[in-house]
Amino acid sequence: MRPSLLHHTRFFITASSLTQLDSVGLPDGNWQAGTLPEIAFVGRSNAGKSTAINLLCNQKRLAFSSKTPGRTQHLNFFTVSDRERRYGYLVDLPGYGYAAADKATRATWDQLLGQYLRQRRALRGVVLLMDARRPLTDLDLQLLDWLEPTGCPVHVLLTKADKLNRSDIAQALRQVSDALAGSPHSVQLFSALKRMGVEQADDKLLEWLGVNTKKNPGETVTGV
Length: 224
Ligand code: GDP
Prior knowledge:
Layout (H helix, E strand, L loop, with lengths): L9 E6 L3 H5 L14 E6 L5 H8 L18 E7 L4 E7 L10 H17 L3 E9 L6 H10 L6 E6 L6 H15 L5 E4 L8 H11 L16
Parallel strand pairs: 2-4, 2-5, 5-6, 6-7
Antiparallel strand pairs: 1-3, 3-4
The structure holds guanosine-5'-diphosphate (GDP).
């Protein structure tokens, strides 16, 4: 596996509302003016979000802390840093579309999600996970709608690509590429099982974190 700055990612805090973030030094500032960038991970529950975060960060249980009771409806922040400095945060957002959740619970999650995605000025990019067998559900489209006015770029991971044959893979990729045409968004295949697409996703996250991986040819990643 290629070494990456992301392998140094550590759990930081859990928050159940945006107002809590101020108190731990995460003001809703403009990231370009000094606030560190945040990259959100979001998707239908069971899309493979925790597995993808763990694989990208080369850790077994990092994102599973988000699944422990009491944390599933929260925003979980992870710090990306090395010995020299902190580069930004990965933010694990609550999975949406829990069939078991009652209406009121779902409404609260939607509100927290929608608020974070629409209002968070430190948000630099969103990784949207979709099961490659069922991409672009109504809830995925709703999420893209939420983000539309903000102009925030989305990178779609079509997960569990190992479960599809070649022609279905090509079709899923084409379907999502067509849907995203003309937007600042991008899409790629991903399989945690086959370790497919890890470096491509890593490149995108480092780009959003402002880490220049191409500056010194021969070096894999700056900052490691
Ligand atoms: P989350 O709810 O979005 O965080 O989803 P999880 O990461 O917990 O994954 C849901 C299920 O899908 C688990 O049983 C994972 O083992 C499985 N899964 C995740 N990624 C892959 C993958 O790339 N390939 C396959 N075949 N299964 C996967």
